[in-house]
Each structure stands twice: as C-alpha cells, then as structure tokens.
Specification:
This protein is mainly beta and about 425 residues long. The protein has helices at about 15-20, 35-55; strands at about 70-75, 80, 85-95, 100-105, 105, 110-115, 120, 130-135, 140-150, 160, 165, 175-180, 195-200, 205, 210, 215-220, 230-235, 240, 250-255, 265, 285-290, 295, 300-310, 315, 325-330, 360, 365-370, 375-380, 385-395, 400, 410-415.
Length: about 425
C-alpha cells in the first residue's frame, strides 16, 4: 500500500476535528464540487506537514562538538634527578597524536602518543622542586598537571674521611678522597675536574691530587715525626667542597705516638653473588659494606653500605613517600631509637651530621632507579667507655614503609687505654 500522509490524521483521515470543518458524506452533500474536495486534500496535507514540522522542531538541533582540551592527572614515576633522562608515563584524557610535553617549562624528549589517556616521554633537565606537567595537542589546546613531578636537589661533592688517626714517624699515611659531582648532583665519572686537597692548618704533608678517572680524586697525608694534627680542605673547580653543609668540609688527621690508641677499619664485606630484582613496589637488598671498626674513645669514622634497589619503583630524594633513608633498628639501638654512635645532637645523640637522631643517612643520589645501587655514607662516633658494641640499621622509604631487613650492622670495638 502506498504511503498516505493523510492517514496520520485522527478519525481515519477525516480532519474535521482539527480544522473545525464539518464533513458529511451523506448523499445530500455529494454535490460538493471538485474545488471543495481539492481544498480538503490540501488542508489534510498541510496539517500533516505541520505536525511533522512540530515533531522535528521539538528535537534539539544536531551539533558537532569541538574537541576539548586535554587533562593531565598523573605521572609515573613522580620524580627524578636534576639531570633529567627519566622515562615517564603521563596519564590523563584527550591526548592526541602529535602532542608535545613540557615538564617544569622545559620540553620533554622521546614523546610517544600511546592513546587518548597515555603518553610516554623522557624528562628534561630542570631545577629542584615540584614542577608542572603540560601536554599540548596539535590544535594548541593544553592541559596542566600542577606540581605533579618533583625534581630532586643535587647531591653535593664530598671529602672523606673527616676524621682519622695515624701514628707518628714520618712514614704512616692516610688517604683523603673527594667524590666529585656536578651542579646537578651527577657523578663526574669521567674525571677531568680541577680538584685541590690542601692543608689549611697543623702538621703533616699532603701529596698531589690523583685523578682516579671514575669521579674520585685522592691525595695522601703523611704523618710528621711528632704528635699533633693536621686539617685538610678541598675545592672542586674552584669552589669549596662542603659535603652538603653550609661551610667547607674539614678532614682532621691526628698523629699519635707509638703505644697510643690507634683507630682502624677492617676489610670491607663484599656484595652477595646475586640479589632479587624487579619486585613490585619499594624493595631493597644489602649489597656490601665497609668493615667493622676499632675506634679510640670519642673517635669518629665513616661507614659505608651499598643498598641495591630490588623493587620496581625508583627512590626520589626529597620526596616524602619516595625517598630512601637508613634508620636505626633492632636490637641496638632499636627501631627508630636514638643512638650513642651518631645523630643530630637531639635526644642524647651526638651530633655527627645525621639527618635526624634516628635517620642515619639519606640516599646519596637524587634518583636511584630499579636495579641501581646507592652507596650510603655516614659518620659514627665511638663511646667513651671501652667495650664491643653492635650498631644496627635498616633501609626504609620515609613516610611509606620499611624495606627488607638484612640484619645490617657494624661491630664497633672501643679498646682499653694502652698501658703506660
């Protein structure tokens, strides 16, 4: 059956109830002329057209929505070193192929569009602190994640040890070492820096500096023939080596008479042949340490321990919940307890330059990624009472969790005074 618009009308096609026109199909009206019939048909058609027009006009007009600006909601990892070079994944919405990325106002490299919600990139070098992540689509619309990425402060160059003892006689020596880092805290592993290590006061002689070629520079102090001490300082490319403090680091070498108490450090403890790797989250494995110590009463020495990042997440200096520390542990002095071997001078701890009385050291590099090793260094001070002591530590992510307990400790022997 052909489509009949007039049949859309109520009353079987009779429009009299709409138009107010009475139509009587009785024989008395069959004489309606053709003009009237044509008018009715036109009215029916017009009524149908009107109804369809109202239906159409009652719908909202179809619109083509313009593409919205992208949003930036997260970045992983959430921080890295000043030097940049960290591979990151940026999450959000509305990303478009060809989008660009800036972090802290500097352009990221190796930007790869993954999807409308994911982009990968490599961070640029920057300045320390919380920085914003900006994704800009080819249409110039952009989205900003304010303060999402933290750039860690640079780790300072160091002069070690800061205290040592050798016997007099003109032949005993003490090695002093500068570990050089650039302004962004990156190890100067290729050598070639201008380093000086000189005597600022006291006695003893100092050799010329040797560039070891791996970012460390050494000089040898030779004892005099009489007791005393010498104070030594260092510079790197003309700037004082401060080891992160506000003043130039001093290394004091004490020359003692034969028969006097002599401090010493035993052989280092080598790393294991294998360690875990890639465990999801924050994890750590012990990777070797400096030897046990014999220290004269009140003497200080530098301890070193290597901690391997066996997890899937990096450690970011200065970022709560991501920065790695060494904390005091059981059994001596106890979890989070102050120690007699070092601290910040509070709660009865001696001031040996620790971050806090119960935090022995923080990570030495701005960023320690998975499968990388962090070399933690800290000073310990011997008690004045002779004896054999144990000092225990454990790595942690500050504000998040303690990492694996490998039973890391040092045995520190304080000898009895020598017989006269």
């Amino acid at each position: 059956m052909p489509w009949r618009p007039d049949r859309l009308l109520a009353g079987g096609g009779n429009p009299s109830h709409l138009a107010g026109v009475v139509v009587n199909d009785s024989s008395s009206h069959k004489e309606m002329n053709r003009t009237s019939a044509a008018a009715l048909r036109v009215r029916r058609i017009l009524t149908v057209v009107l109804m369809l027009s109202l239906i159409v006009l009652g719908q909202p007009p179809m619109q083509i929505a313009a593409a919205g600006a992208p949003t930036v909601t997260a970045i992983s990892p959430t921080g890295g070193p000043l030097a940049g070079g960290t591979a990151v994944t940026i999450s959000g919405t509305g990303f478009v192929s060809g989008a660009t990325v800036t972090i802290g106002g500097a352009s990221a490299t190796s930007v790869v569009f993954g999807s409308a919600t994911s982009i990968t990139a490599v961070t640029p070098s920057g300045t320390a602190g919380a920085t914003s992540v900006v994704v800009t689509n080819p249409d110039t619309q952009s989205g900003t994640g304010t303060g999402l990425y933290s750039v860690a402060a640079a780790t300072a160059s160091t002069l070690t040890p800061t205290s040592a003892s050798v016997t007099v006689g003109g032949v005993m020596t003490q090695l002093l070492t500068v570990t050089a880092k650039d302004s962004r805290g990156t190890n100067l592993t290729s050598g070639g820096a201008i380093v000086t290590i000189t005597k600022s006061s006291g006695t003893g002689t100092i050799s010329a500096v040797t560039d070891v070629g791996n970012g460390t520079y050494t000089a040898v102090v030779t004892s005099p023939t009489t007791p005393g001490s010498g104070v030594f300082v260092a510079t790197l490319n003309g700037a004082a080596v401060t080891s992160g403090s506000t003043s130039q680091t001093e290394a004091t070498v004490t020359y003692v008479a034969l028969g006097s108490c002599i401090s010493s450090v035993g052989p280092g403890i080598a790393a294991p042949t294998s360690v875990p790797s890639g465990i999801p989250g924050f994890h750590a494995a012990w990777y070797g340490q400096s030897g046990y110590m014999t220290l004269c009463p009140g003497e200080t020495a530098t301890a070193t321990v290597a901690i391997y990042n066996s997890g899937s997440r990096g450690w970011v200096s200065g970022v709560m919940g991501e920065v790695a520390y060494l904390g005091t542990w059981n059994p001596s002095p106890g979890q989070d307890q102050p120690s007699t071997f070092g601290g910040d001078g509070t709660l009865g701890s001696p001031n040996t330059g620790w971050p806090r009385y119960n935090r022995v050291a923080s990570q030495p590099a701005a960023y320690v990624g998975p499968n990388q090793v962090a070399w933690f260094q800290f000073s310990v001070k011997a008690p004045t009472t002779p004896g054999i002591y144990g000092f225990h530590i454990r790595p942690l992510i500050e504000g998040a969790q303690w990492m694996e307990d490998y039973g890391i400790f040092w045995q520190i022997t304080v000898p009895e005074p020598p017989l006269a």
